[in-house]
Amino acid sequence: MVELTLAHWMYLAGTVLIIVTMLVRQNVLVPSLLMTFLVGWIYLGSFAEGLQTLFTASLVAAAELFNIFLIITVMTALLHALKVLQADERMVRPFGYIMKTGHSSFWVLAFITYGISLFFWPTPAVA
Questions:
Q1: Is 77 part of a structural domain of the chain?
Q2: How many whole angstroms separate alpha carbon 101 and alpha carbon 40?
Q3: On the CB side of 105, how many CA atoms lie within 13 Å of its CA?
Q4: What are the average pLDDT values for consecutive 10-residue runs of the chain, which has 127 residues?
């Protein structure tokens, strides 16, 4: 059985502090950095290694999130390119006579997307 140490309780306190900070609609950066430092200091037993924990945590987070940022950047660029080419309007224009209200537009787009996905869905899953 795993024994909970002071570092575990400090991590729990940090999680609660961050949730409370979000509930009062404040910035979570300072509490996150403070609690990361305290958990690192308590767990490693050294003030200097506690400071080093801040930089290590930032590098690990950046490495894990880089792929997500890259995908968001590429998708935003592609969306902008579609708008410049007016492809977003051209793709919807053939169905404009059906899409008069928000509800009909939703259902038309849902059925069209479903129909297209029937042809393209297995490709990414197989690869």
A1: yes
A2: 56
A3: 7
A4: 92 97 95 95 95 94 90 93 88 82 89 84 58
Six token digits for residue 106: 């939703």
Q: Specify whether 77 is located in the same domain as 114.
A: no
| Residue range(s) defining the domain that contains residue 36 | 1-85
Residues 68 and 100 in one domain: no
* Amino acid letter, residue 78: L
